[in-house]
Amino acid sequence: MIPQKFLLLGANGQVGTELRRSFADAGEVIACDRARADLSHPEKLRALVRDIRPDVILNAAAYTAVDRAESEPDLAMLINGTAPRVLAEEAAKTGALLVHYSTDYVFDGTKDGAWIETDATHPLSVYGKTKLAGEQGIQETAAKYLIFRTSWVFGPYGQNFLRTMLRLGKEKPQLRIVDDQIGAPTSSSAIANATRAVLKGAADIPSGIYHMSCAGQTSWYGFARAIFTQAATPEIIPITTEEYPTPARRPRNSVLSNQKLKTTFRVELPSWEEALQRVLQSI
Q: Is pLDDT of 103 > 80?
């Protein structure tokens, strides 16, 4: 890769922290946390992009509190919907490439089999609706862009299922975990490594939406059991979605097909089991 200037937003988040690592030797990386680049004030991002004039914008910032978004729809829309469009508008003016991360929650989970990029979207939650609005806003501009939809993100940093399970496993002798929602747990490091591989390996990058998740699938219950394979194991009881009501509805099937990513960029992510073992070893 020719040395470039990267503007990284959400630099202290799950994916942002790993992007700082994976792009450390790729060129000049200007890493911005919320204090410098607050996506809840989208219009302030314009001056930031114009001042830095990056070659690539890596937008790893997002409103990710799925249940809280139900009671904060306007804030979630500013961060997940409006801000990505603003970034894309500024990217179009400067010729920058915008890399943006979206979610499996743009789908309703009713499909049998893995979701492909051209499947009809029908988000069930405010979070999913705002992330879809961000995708659509980017696509409506003239920017060069890559939208990577990922799923069930976990890692050693931030708030995620893995860290919650490890904490609860020390506090409680019994955990009741949903067993009828399936997806592909995807590590933040796998996402960052795949993003670097895409940008490093492709001379001409075709704009579009690409699914980027670890291989394989499991349920939250299966994920929890795998987490505790090498840790002190509480009793884990499988339950239904109805037995664990949440403010936000979640898709029953979140499995994404990564064939387009593989075909276009020759990039594949590891299995979710392998990614999990790598993260557990690093903690």
A: yes
